[in-house]
Amino acid sequence: MRKSWKVISVLLVVAFVSMMLAACSNDASGSGVSVGIVLPTKDEPRWVQDEQRFKDALSDSDYTTEILFSQGSSAKEKENVETLLNKGIEVLIIAPHDGAAAGSAVEAAKKEGVTVIAYDRLITETDAVDYYVTFDSIAVGAAQGQFLINNSEGSNVPLYLYAGASSDNNAFLFFEGAWSVLQPKIADGTFVIANSSEAEALQDKAELTRDEMSRILGQVTTNWDPNEAKNKAQTHLTAVGGELKGDVAILAPNDGTARAIADVFATDSEVTSYVVTGQDAEKASVQYIIDGKQSMTVFKDVRTLVKDAMGMAIDVLDGNTPATTGAYDNGSIEVKAKQTDVIVVEQTNVKSELIDSGYYEADEFTGL
């Protein structure tokens, strides 16, 4: 009798362990997560704001999402994608840290039958991308360049060029857009390039190849890092004479770098005035614009971008084909894209574009 009870006890234990293993396996392979989202870093306000907007976008839906941050590491990014694949996602939305390095991560997703949506930054050199949701990045750069033209007077205005990270395809598109409008004004003597021998050597060329832009970016990249932007600006101002100071124009790629660069130029007694561009309408930069310390920002209403990305994801989950408005060559295929418009914000329209639209509250700023 005891032997029978022992056998039964052993069988019960085996059955219990089997059930626990099965449960663990189910947790690992599918937790009901419909959409996996991978964002590049928590260190920039833009991406933290996106996290909440993505959560809000699915709040009234039966679909679920999980959001992970890569913290500026392509290895962590790939690990995040693998984590989400193990949770059974059907759609992956990813803003890559490095457009080319992200290829292996999304290729793993495609092998699992997951639809891949590149978000804000294009994933390059792979055919494992289904869609791209983006602002018109060339239009962003063109708007920055045109603002410098519209707000500079006379000739031989010193022009300081700065760019984003060369690992980010958008940095090339922003620069391409800016160069397209600035180059004619460099060629005719309105501007004189102050901080890039590579750009100076190419100043008569209207359209630059990728390699030519790479050479310029190699000299003026900020890597999207305000500290690096600050150090470069200090180095550049130390290296030039008074003839490249006075009233200056500064192409800064985004708001974080714009504030850092503006702070440096503001402390140089030989710089009498500066016009500096930005991008993203970060709260701190909106205050800088109100205070006259930053000239403009390109407002990319991320609410619309998130809405477009989640709309695409839901279309896929519902078995529908997402609507697109264009396509981008990623070096391997033409990726179908949904483009979102951009808006130039300066002192005169901060209230109408950012407060009245509900993007920010008036009490978040002083001197509005």
TrEMBL record:
Q: Which InterPro entries match?
A: Bact_Solute-Bind_Prot2 (IPR050555), SBP_2_dom (IPR025997)
Subcellular localization(s) per the UniProt record: Cell envelope
Periplasmic binding protein domain span: 35-320
Principal location class: other
Mind listing the UniProt keywords for this protein, alphabetically?
A: Signal
> What single Pfam family name could you report for this chain, choosing any that match?
Peripla_BP_4
Where does the secretion signal sit in this chain? 1-22
Q: What is this protein called?
A: Sugar-binding protein
Protein source organism: Evansella tamaricis
The taxonomy runs:
Bacteria, Bacillati, Bacillota, Bacilli, Bacillales
